[in-house]
Structure prediction request, 254 residues.
Amino acid sequence: CAIKEDEFYDAIDASLDKLEEKVDEEKINKLVETHLKNLEHRNNEGHDLWQCIAEEGDLKVYKRELEVDGVVVDPLKACHTVKGITGHEVCHYFWDIDVRLDWDVTLESSQALEWWSEDTFISHNIIKRVWPASQRDAVFWSHIRHVDGETDEDPDRWIVVNYSTDSEQIPNNKYVRVIMNVAMICQTIIEPPEDGNITRDNIKCKISYTADVNPGGWAPASVLRAVYKREYPRFLKRFTGYNMDTNTKTLQNE
Ligand code: 6CM
Prediction:
């Protein structure tokens, strides 16, 4: 009868939804794990493989030149140490869509489309047009997570992963779609004072940022590389400066 048929299809839909959720969750876990595993390797990796494109104080930005089918997909990594802020604060600002446009000046707009859980959401981001290339957009999920240190002595970590996905709400036909896998990993380093009263003067945050971006479509390699060389250091300086300006006087509980 009709009711039974409806129930049957509802049950199939429900189990497909569950399966999809599981796949997403597994994918997120796998990506977090891979980024954390690569961190150690990246830090120790012979820097001769990487070309330093910017160095200013503790900030260092590196790239490796790579093209796939004529499209520039240079992997990029950066490390920075910033005094007076915690890893939790830095990652929170990187993840929080409400403040994204305050520090990411490469974006024209950023709109949350769907929340998968309290730590993961999908957003649609329209990137400012760079002449002479076509305007780009990106749809990605952003996930934030607190991870214990590898041993009791190691500092714990905060990680944010921004990873491209599709959304039925935003068809891929108006802009050129950028595909990316971006991660920010932070550790708070505490140097406790003799009186044991920890203030912002006793903390610093070690930041590691990686971006694998395929700009999609066609873009002149020289313009793209010039944009990256200017924009990545600018973003990291602006972003950490933004953190310093907006963080509260009291330390957030780690
Ligand atoms: O990681 C950054 N921002 C995050 C939050 O907004 C997010 C990044 C999303 C967009 C990444 C786009 C990269 C550049 C796209 C290429 C533009 C092509 C122009 C063609 C030129 C000929 O993870 C900071 C991203 C800083 C980017 C410089």
